[in-house]
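ok so for the tutorial part 2 we go from a plain amino acid sequence to predicted structure tokens. step 1 is just haveing the sequence, like this:
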Amino acid sequence: IPLSSLGKATLKPELANISRYNGQRVNTVQGFLTPGVLADKALTDFKQQLANATWQLPSGYSYEFGGEAEQKNNAIGGLISTVGVIAVLMVATLVLSLGSFRLTAVIGIVAIASFGLGLFSIWLFGYPFGFNPIIGTVGLIGVAINDSIVVLAAIQQHPVAKTGNKKAIREVVLHSTRHVIATTLTTAIGFVPLLLGGGEFWPPLAIVIAGGVIGATLLALYLIPAAYLIVVRQQRTKSLIQYDRQNTLVLDGEG
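step 2 — the prediction. this is what the tokens look like for a chain of 255 residues:
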């Protein structure tokens, strides 16, 4: 089929533009993904092939990866820049609510552990750590510590359990188990539509939050009571030492 039968072709000159990125001349090379393939997975395979080829750029040239990789780096940089302010606000809120720096540190351990549980869930289901899991882990920390705060507050409100009585603490935890599990199930079930919807975009987000919340429930029911006992015993031991120091009689040689 001749081109003239499809339309009229004309040559139109245009002024050449020099593309620049961060003040430097740049040539952009684009790649298009096969449907159903995550950008992070494709980029990882490409980097591996590039490393195996032992290919090097000429002197004075460099390359950077944009797209999903660039957005991921920007997201991590934004989170790191605000993590100090967020941490201070969380610590202040927990200290005012719990009235103890040690108990606040226990909640902090749960937050860090829940972050690790979210990453473990991503690894377990074979998803790459891309942009969505990063956003999911940020939301996960706030949701995961809720169960631990519920259990810890219930122990502190009980007149006997707050003194470190093991039997009373066990009863309080058993009583709180129904509320903790109900909260966990409602949170995890809320992400089921994202999991059943398929695709490669939403499941990583749903898995990192649901998996982290389920793991954090076990921490709330087992770690929090044990940690509270340790904190109470340390405080009691410290109080006894101070009492002994204040009530010790020092006798001289003539006394």
